[in-house]
Amino acid sequence: MQQGTLMRKVKSKNWKKQRYFKLQDDCMTIWYHSKRTGRIESAFSISDVETVREGHQSEVLQSLAEEFPPERCFTIVFYGRRGNLDLIAGSVEEAQCWVQGLHQLIESFPLTPALVSCTWIRDWFQKGDKNKDGRMNFKEVQRLLKMMNVDMNEDHALQLFQDADKSESGTLEGEEFVLFYKALTQRKEVLSLFQEFSEDGKKLTLLELVDFLQQEQLEDEGAEQLAMELIDKYEPSETARARHVLSADGFLMYLCSPDGSIFNPQHRALWQDMSQPLCHYFISSSHNTYLIEDQIRGQSSIEGYIRALKRGCRCLEVDCWDGPNGEPVVYHGHTFTSKIPFREVVSTLAKYAFKVGTCPWALKLLPCPLPGAEGSWWCWLPAVRDPGPQQISQRKWTPSLYPTLQELKHKILLKGKKIGRLEDTLDGPGDEAPDVSDDDNGGEAEEERRRAKMVLPSGGTQHSLALQKDKESLAQSLSDCVIYCKSVSFRGFQEARSHSRPSEISSFSEAKARKLIRDAGNEFVRHNAWQLTRIYPSGMRTDSSNYSPQEMWNVGCQIVALNFQTAGMEMDLCDGLFSQNGCCGYVLKPPFMRDEETLFNPSDPSSREGPGPTTLTIQVISGQQLPKVANSKEGAVIDPLVRVEIHGVPADQAHQETKYIENNGFNPRWDETLQFQLHVPELALIRFVVEDYDKTSRNDFVGQFTLAFVNIKPGYRHVHLLSKDGTSIPPSSLFVHIHITE
To answer: In what residue span(s) does the PH domain sit (predicted)?
Structure first.
């Protein structure tokens, strides 16, 4: 790998370019060159790579299966929304060398704070060493500072350079550059905090560290045991570890680690009650999952399903249509989006369904008659357990009789049309006309219902006509697969309470949902306490933009479907909410949203039972090594500011921001305090946004991090920033102090 390999980079069946790939000496960076020009075309870090797939495991490589054997093909999959890299090696041996080598590098390089720092230093040295002679003169250092987002006084930069040049050679080599980098990145605000609790200013004894954890980090229970663990985990000196003391370097490593993050590390794993019925959870849900671009001409791809499932999505959408030779295809019907075989979709779902977690997930099947739909395409999908006879006999089930999330582990639920009710499926037709409509095409379905009611054939009944029509348009075997997520039209909350079942689900456009929230907020919350509701984007969002999911979560809507392929604030909120609880895609709703008789209305915070408003105080202290704005001019340095946004019920919606710091994206210092009143903290999401201030135009995005209020750890914490597409950008972070009072 380090000698370099000539391989074909493939983008389509007709686009195959030869590129020279080489693993750099740092064993962390891969460059690839154009064979024709010899110039470096692009580079990526091993830390950017999520996995490597062998063989024809992409649509592009599948299209070339007859031309190239699978043993020579592999796909590099990156984190986030970055496109995959499909490669064809010149031989089986070369392909295996790269596949095995990449797997070893990925597994061998967990991003510990120490490794991040080491890798970061090495990367900057390589970028600054323009003539590649293994040393840097002062001119190269000045250029590097601009690249690092630092606009430093020349005299001060020269002083740091000379202090690090121990050999007095006029250049920095190896360890000398490390000294320069450490002087440059010295954290005065952290050192000052360290010295507040250190009697000698050089170390924290075990008792001093316990004092810090109890007084500032509010770690009351087991503080001494935690202190011991932190010393063992983060103290770099073996001697200090043996003496049970923490140095300033160890203290900084702790604060920069997951243990020092604003996100409660205990909430990263499953921490919520998973024995509730489905309707008691917010469920990570996608819209038109197969699309990775726009809604009209965009590409349909199995990658949409893979990416969504890996992000913890638990509700996927499959639009099935008749294809050539009787094979169904998946695409956005009546548009120019590309098509993928349905067989490939279910094969992909079978492979990735439970890789992230064991919780159940649902397929959203849009209505489309499929000749021969009773074939084997559906047979692989396991049905959930049938309810007992005593449950079926009841006219209306209660949530306690609905299967729990725990009981549905490893199950796949189909949401779609159904002939008759579940009772009809098991005991024969009942007295009511079956309903197989879905609000996604509610206008057409409603018109058909009106026609059926107005024109009844001689001797026929409304029930028999509807049942006959349903049987003509929907395969019985497909209908039988729909158990707990039968699609029904919504005719009002009172009608639903009287006649609907917990096993049924209604879909609303974002506009319809907003009207219901505005006109009947409390009734909507009560409805969602016992039945599932799905919200989908407006048909006008042809660019695959998203609506804010927060207003839908405020009334307890469980399945709030978003376009996962589109980055932005809306997906930041989605990722922020579902980053907890093991990223399983399920988040338990607050108690007052699980009660069918609740008085809660998001437009009236006083309707929430419980304590009064909570005060959230955030001191934004500093930032570290913020990234440059994409496509910025060479030498440009950002002017960063921090905006804190509160997303929740209308009374809690707010945002405040700091002043901007001119020409310093490397270690800006704000020391500003922002304060918010939260009336319903259980529903609040906190979003930290860093922007590059521009007085003449819109500020540019730099980074963000979003989390639910319930996942915040108080005290001195780091906020580890994410890029626009949700991937980490280490070591970019904010240093803050969090104080919460009720």
So the answer is: 1-107
Exactly one of 56, 332, 647, 679 is catalytic; name it: 332
244 assigned to active site: no
What is the per-residue pLDDT across 18-27, written as a single tens digit (0 to 9) for each?
Answer: 888 888 776 7
Q: Which residues contact 353 (CB under 8 A, 6 or more apart)?
A: 309, 361, 412
- Rounded to the nearest 10°, the torsion over CA 98, 99, 103, 104 is -40
Beta strands in 570-699 (DSSP E): 586-588, 614-624, 640-647, 654-657, 669-678, 685-692
Q: What is the pLDDT of residues 700-709, one digit of tens each?
A: 999 999 999 9
Mean pLDDT of 476-480: 84
Cβ(357)–Cβ(583) below 8 Å: yes
Number of independent structural domains in the chain: 5
Instruction: Judge whether 328 lies within some domain.
Output: yes
Percent of the chain whose pLDDT exceeds 90: 58
Which range of residues forms the domain containing residue 96?
Answer: 5-108
Q: Is the pLDDT of residue 363 over 70?
A: no
Q: Which two tokens stand for residue 56?
A: 């024809």
Structure tokens at 693: 């201030």
The active-site residue out of 56, 287, 718, 720 is: 287
Domain C-terminal end among 170, 185, 200? 185
| Contact call for residues 649 and 525 (beta carbons, < 8 A) | no
342: enclosing H helix or E strand:
helix 342-352
Gap between the Cα atoms of 177 and 166, Å rounded: 10
Q: For residue 158, what is the domain's CATH number?
A: 1.10.238.10
